[in-house]
């Protein structure tokens, strides 16, 4: 009996051993699945910028800190850029229809980088071309000021507004109201100070527009832009200034640069008895 039991047990163990695999199968290496890092969707990237922001590639950005933004010296411009100003008349909206009261160029001994157009406080001021608001803020000189970047790289600036209606980043169509005319900042009397700029440099609005008595039209549908368009700026940059230091006087500045006191006074719009402030800039040529 015992022999029979032992025999059956032996058979059972033998069966187990025979049916066991002769090698251990190794599971294939599966790359560990890394839990995905939760990425917050980027609300703004370079592709969006190229697509959304006018002339982003030309400016390599959209500076919202400085009113004039990036500055590239256009007086040294080597090439000619053909700017498509407009394709047809509906690509343009007159900022304001009014009398031209002060032109681009020298105003006494100071440069004036725009044109002044008479209006009444509260009159609607309109955006000239399709574009995006780069600056909408208050400045001590410009008052309430709006700067719009356009697709062709031009920027237009609207100053001394009584009210800003748009905010930075707004997309505007030509002719849309951006603010109300006023007399804010360094201004005497309600008017619109209007500038055209290219790569941060002032461009005479008469190069772009035909501005006559109460008319404001596009001069040509395209503008060939080269260094000649910035000749006024070249003149301005030749001006030299003396920074007033402790102990300076008009007599001393006159002797130092060999310029008469009366000429210095004329250049700076001051009289001979003017007390100079330390740090003040006095033009001497
Ligand atoms: Zn002005």
What is the makeup of the main sheet? 8 strands, antiparallel
Task: Name the overall outline.
Answer: globular
Output mean pLDDT: 84
Structural class by helix and strand composition: alpha+beta
Count of folded domains: 2
The third-level CATH topology of the largest domain is Glucose Permease (Domain IIA)
Question: What is the string of SSEs from the N terminus onward?
Answer: HHHEEEEEEEEEEEEEEHEEEHEHHE
| Total of helices | 7
Structure description:
The chain is an alpha+beta fold. It has 2 domains: 74-237, Glucose Permease (Domain IIA), CATH 2.70.70; 241-283, LysM domain (Membrane-bound Lytic Murein Transglycosylase D, Chain A), CATH 3.10.350. 20% of the residues lie in helices and 29% in strands. It has 7 helices and 19 strands. The strands form 6 sheets. Strands 2, 5, 7, 8, 9, 11, 13 and 14 form an 8-stranded antiparallel beta sheet that branches. It has a 3-stranded antiparallel beta sheet with strand order 6-12-10, with no helix packed on it. Strands 1-17 form a two-stranded antiparallel sheet. A hairpin with a 3-residue loop joins strand 8 (143-150) and strand 9. The longest helix has 18 residues, at 2-19. The radius of gyration is 36 Å and the shape is globular. It starts with a helix and ends with a strand. The chain binds zinc ion. Residues 102, 112, 114, 116, 193 line the site of zinc ion (ZN).
